[in-house]
Write a structure and sequence with these properties.
Length: 164
């Protein structure tokens, strides 16, 4: 019953793009029309980027490749979508959290703000075949933390290595 991988990732991609768009909207100063365009461009960029890196049978495979990351460097997909509406990387750094990790995996989209923030789930759907999705301890403790604009103190972080 499944269609191509491209179809199956629609929900996850739109959830992730909507989340980044919401962060921009909350920061203020970006018009609704620009936000709509940003969201569409980001979805398109993600779709293109993930096309051959989406494995519903092994959801964690390629997770590092699909991870959207802002950490004193702008994620290229976010940067590209912002460029389409005339937002510079400098402006993006002012609007978005300085430490943001967004995991876009089959059946689950989650994020963390700050290097030591709790991981919050934005979207979760049951996996076909009844495999149990990975459990996250801090799943329920998270109430839209990004509103508070909490960012972790800046210190030098070790790069996380993601094994595929």
């Amino acid at each position: 019953a499944g269609s191509g991988a491209g179809e199956d990732m629609r929900t996850e991609i739109s959830t992730a793009a909507a989340f980044v768009t919401r962060l921009l909207r909350a920061a203020g100063g970006v018009g609704e029309e620009q936000l709509r365009c940003f969201r569409e461009c980001l979805q398109e960029a993600m779709h293109e980027h993930y096309k051959h890196h989406w494995f519903p049978l092994v959801p964690s495979k390629g997770s590092g490749y699909r991870c959207i990351r802002i950490n004193h460097k702008m994620d290229p997909l976010v940067g590209k979508a912002a460029g389409m509406i005339g937002l510079s990387h400098e402006r993006l750094f002012q609007l978005l959290p300085s430490e943001l990790t967004l995991w876009v995996d089959p059946f689950e989209v989650s994020y963390r703000i700050g290097e030591d923030g709790s991981i919050c789930v934005l979207h979760e759907s049951p996996q076909p075949g009844g495999k149990v999705a990975k459990q996250l301890e801090s799943r329920t403790s998270c109430k839209e933390e990004w509103r508070i604009g909490r960012s972790s103190p800046s210190k030098s972080y070790n790069m996380m290595t993601v094994s595929s």
